[in-house]
Design a protein that fits this description.
It is built from nine helices and four strands; from the N terminus they run αααβαααββαααβ. By secondary structure, the chain is mostly helical. The strands form two sheets. It has a two-stranded parallel ribbon. Strands 2-3 form a two-stranded antiparallel sheet. A hairpin with an 8-residue loop joins β2 and β3. α3 packs parallel to α5.
């Protein structure tokens, strides 16, 4: 059987995500499934739930220990559907600074840019695609921020416990406000647990990561 004939849930197990440690200290596969569960709780529908499961399938600006080749995009579309794959693709390849910059753009004017290492091209988003992207991107962060903040991660510029709370603080708050509803409720619940001692911390940019020397890449 071709691996792309598996269910999406079977696929993420088969490609080895359960053997890779994620930034937040849990297994990568567990984090993927947890983001999917968060989105299910928000009632966003099956397509975005699958986008959450695949949100970092090609590697992201902040996590590159697993990278499915971009040559397999058509296979992933067949597996999870075009809407879910497009959302996951944007989440993976985008320069996050360009997402943050477009949060204040008016309807119909949302544009992001891919990182230079994956082409540096412009990606124009419809209003629906923009909403999809910030929904999945916010769910991803809310699922892990408390674990990230409990440890040091010098690779991301978090040199003491608690620093992760400040990562793109303004941008995530703005995403929550734009989405409203369960997403905003979840944001408020998570950040209500932030200690007073870190609420002044703000890190606007994502440090430029170097790909691991031996990245786990599935290129069937």
């Amino acid at each position: 059987m071709d691996i792309f004939d598996l269910t999406p849930e079977e696929f993420v197990v088969k490609v080895g995500t359960g053997t890779i440690v994620h930034n937040s200290g849990d297994l990568f596969g567990d984090h993927l499934k947890a983001v999917q569960r968060v989105l299910k709780e928000w009632g966003v529908g099956k397509e975005l739930e699958l986008a959450g499961l695949f949100h970092s399938i090609y590697g992201t600006e902040g996590f590159q220990d697993f990278q499915l080749s971009l040559d397999r995009r058509q296979d992933v579309k067949r597996l999870v559907g075009e809407r879910a794959e497009h959302c996951a693709y944007c989440n993976c390849v985008m320069d996050r600074e360009t997402l943050d910059a477009t949060l204040s753009a008016p309807a119909g004017k949302h544009t992001i840019r891919a990182r230079p290492d994956v082409g540096g091209h412009e990606i124009v988003l419809t209003d629906q695609q923009f909403s999809d992207l910030i929904t999945v991107h916010l769910a991803d962060w809310l699922e892990q921020v408390e674990r990230e903040a409990a440890k040091v991660n010098e690779r991301h510029g978090w040199f003491k416990e608690g620093d992760a709370w400040g990562y793109r603080r303004k941008a995530y708050r703005q995403m929550a406000e734009l989405l409203g509803g369960p997403a905003q409720d979840a944001y408020q619940a998570v950040f209500a647990r932030e200690p007073d001692s870190t609420r002044h911390i703000s890190q606007d940019l994502t440090p430029k990561l170097k790909a691991p020397i031996t990245p786990k890449i599935f290129v069937q």
